[in-house]
Design goal:
Elements lengths: L16 H12 L10 H11 L4 E4 L4 E3 H17 L7 E5 L4 H12 L3 E4 L6 H11 L3 E5 L3 H7 L8 E5 L8 H6 L8 H4 L7 E6 L9 E5 H14 L7 E4 L6 H12 L4 E4 L8 H7 L4 E5 L2 H7 L13 E5 L3 H11 L4 E5 L8 E3 L8 E2 L10 E4 L25 E6 L16 H6 L1 E3 L7 E11 L4 E7 L4 E3 L2 E3 L1 H9 L4 E9 L8 E8 L5 H11 L8 E4 L14 H6 L10 E4 L6 E3 L2 H9 L5
Parallel strand pairs: 1-10, 3-4, 3-5, 4-7, 5-6, 9-10, 9-11, 11-12, 12-13, 24-25
Antiparallel strand pairs: 1-2, 7-8, 13-14, 15-20, 16-17, 17-19, 18-19, 19-20, 21-22, 23-24, 25-26, 26-27
Length: about 600
């Protein structure tokens, strides 16, 4: 374990909301005016101004800005030496470490496209992601060799394989880089790469089906980095702790690029650990950290750490911090300010809660309404089809009414954000909603149900398709899941709807991970006090562990397919007896009676 570099400066005060917006605008205002200036050029500028300041740090390696710039140039020249042309893809199947960022920054600087492959994938999912990229080269971390070798014979294309690790005997990428020049690239080496060109392929989480490869341009990288540098008020004195996957947009682009755009430092941990999180934040003397999904809830549920308030954090930035966790998390760990935001890797608009309103995912201030034209439209929760009026146009939701959030798709000369889509044209088209508020317009479908309060703040409700109808009422799985997680004895939970023959809609079901203090009677009472009767789960599955993505998004499809069938589910099953109102074991006989309609739910 290496010692951390010199301590960061003491935290600054929280800037006003107006100042935060203005800083973000200032940092992104000139992107279009310099179409050949890429993010790697920002790194080069900081390397000239502060060569010795740490840029990327970890327990494995640390790059100063000078080191990082040199590494970027070597990766760029490696791509040129291998004849990797503009637009040609190289897959990165590597662990989270500073060299990962140097690799994609260097490759993309000369027009190559880096496909960021999820290191947790195996089998058909891994082969699919490599095939979708149609890569000419794949750089593989040594400890991932087993997973890669297993799928290599199945790949549609036989790419050139490079091994990343000091012990690699053949096609050692580090050895190849060591012999290359690290000086600034010449104009001819840079090729004609512009901000509109594709830089990365980043894959969706794959919560339903195989992952899709989203196209990320240089323009989006610059916007993400500059926008978040402004909103976080980042400066060279800052140091951000990043324990999120580098193959995803937040952990691999938003978090590090926001700091590198401001000349700050990024501490990279290969994975999140609730047990070591606060010790590492304190050890590296970080002033910010990036969160996503359930990370904050895991920390709040973890035993107390002697380091949890011995830090100099001024800000936590991320998305997915639920309202029921927000205030407890901020108070217990002494976080001065939380910047919650909403965004999707492939999405064309974002929301930012710079005011720090607990439970809100953001708002669009009037001065930026033209830049982020977003709306919420009424949707049929059963079919996920937008409702339309007599003119065939969509209907905007009112205050407090839940619907699907959409963002207008625009070009450089009209309002709206660009939608760069996926590598698959059919999948791209599925995300576009046409004739929304005017004939011929086009809007990006987020697939997320939201509502707006009377203060203009957006609130996340549920994923489209997760909300279901039961007893004639709409049930939001996120609302039910929040109530379940607040029950004593419940460690983790996922809520979903299941079909019951002879009934309308879907009945609520929850898979729970519990400890020894869990009691069904207390559980039933707890839910009845917090939820309407129609929203209380009908079926319960007690599981040892729940499957989720690397960004803590729950995988529901396998649970939904298994349903409440004892022949398909090895876990203990229970259902709420309609007569007693108590949860009772669900055996094959009762299951058969439910299917026959002998038990009326």
């Amino acid at each position: 374990m290496v010692d951390p570099p010199e301590a960061a400066a003491r935290p600054r005060g929280k800037p006003s909301a107006a100042k935060s917006w203005l800083k973000a605008i200032e940092r992104t205002a000139r992107i279009e005016a310099s179409p050949h200036a890429l993010f790697a050029d920002l790194v080069e500028e900081w390397a000239a101004r502060q060569p010795d300041r740490p840029a990327l740090m970890s327990d494995q390696e640390t790059f100063s800005y000078q080191d990082l710039n040199a590494r970027i140039n070597r990766y760029a020249r490696w791509a040129i030496s291998q004849g990797i042309g503009k637009g040609e893809t190289v897959c990165l199947f590597l662990p989270g470490q500073p060299d990962y960022l140097a690799a994609w920054l260097g490759l993309s600087r000369v027009g190559a496209v880096a496909a960021l492959i999820n290191t947790k994938l195996v089998g058909s999912s891994l082969a699919h992601c490599i095939d979708v990229a149609d890569a000419s080269h794949v750089i593989v971390g040594q400890y991932l060799a087993g997973a890669f070798r297993e799928v290599e014979p199945r790949l549609k294309r036989a790419p050139k394989i490079w091994w990343h690790g000091s012990d690699a005997a053949d096609a050692n990428i580090k050895a190849a880089l060591s012999g290359l020049d690290a000086s600034p690239l010449t104009s001819s080496e840079r090729r004609d790469v512009t901000i509109g060109d594709r830089a990365l392929l980043i894959y969706t989480s794959g919560t339903t089906g195989l992952p899709k490869a989203a196209s990320i341009s240089h323009r989006r990288i610059l916007n993400w980095g500059g926008w978040f540098a402004g909103l976080t008020d980042a400066s060279p004195d800052d140091r951000l702790f990043d324990c999120l996957p580098l193959f995803h947009s937040v952990g691999g682009v938003v978090a590090p690029c926001s700091m590198l755009a401001a000349g700050a430092s990024v501490v990279i941990a290969d994975k999140f650990s609730a047990g070591t999180f606060w010790r590492d934040v304190a050890r590296w003397d970080c002033t910010l950290f990036q969160y996503i999904g359930e990370l904050c809830r895991y920390l709040l549920k973890a035993p107390a750490s002697e380091f949890e308030t011995r830090h100099r954090l001024r800000l936590a930035c991320g998305n997915g911090l639920r309202g029921d966790v927000w205030e407890g998390f901020q108070t217990r760990f002494g976080i001065p300010h939380i910047l919650e935001f909403y965004a999707a890797t492939e999405g064309n608009f974002s929301l930012y809660n710079v005011e720090g309103k607990p439970g809100a995912i953001g708002r669009i201030p009037p001065l930026l309404a033209h830049r982020f034209p977003a709306s919420i439209v009424r949707i049929d929760p059963e079919t996920s089809v937008p409702l339309r009026n007599a003119d065939g146009l969509c209907v905007a939701c009112g205050i407090g009414e839940a619907g699907e959030a959409v963002g207008r798709i625009g070009t450089a000369d009209e309002a709206g954000g660009r939608f760069e889509g996926y590598t698959n044209a059919a999948e791209t088209e599925k995300k576009i909603l046409r004739d929304v508020f005017a004939k011929g317009d086009a809007w990006f479908r987020t697939g997320d149900l939201m509502k707006i309060d009377d203060g203009g703040f957006f609130h996340f409700v549920d994923r489209l398709g997760d909300t279901f109808r039961w007893k004639g009422e709409n049930v939001a799985t996120s609302e039910v899941n929040e109530a379940i997680l607040q029950c004593p004895g419940v460690i983790d939970a996922v809520t979903y709807g299941v079909l019951v023959p002879g009934t309308d809609g879907r009945a609520g079901m929850a898979a729970l991970v519990t400890d020894g203090s869990f009691d069904f009677a207390e559980f039933g009472d707890h839910l009845s006090r917090r939820l309407p009767a129609y929203a209380c789960p009908v079926f319960i599955r007690l599981s040892a562990v729940l499957d989720s993505t690397e960004t803590f998004k729950q995988k529901k499809q396998e649970l939904i397919r298994a349903g409440f069938d004892p022949s398909k589910v090895a876990d203990p099953l229970f259902f709420r007896d309609p007569k007693s109102g108590s949860f009772v074991p669900l055996d094959p006989d009762q299951h058969a009676r439910l299917l026959e309609g002998a038990i009326r739910l």
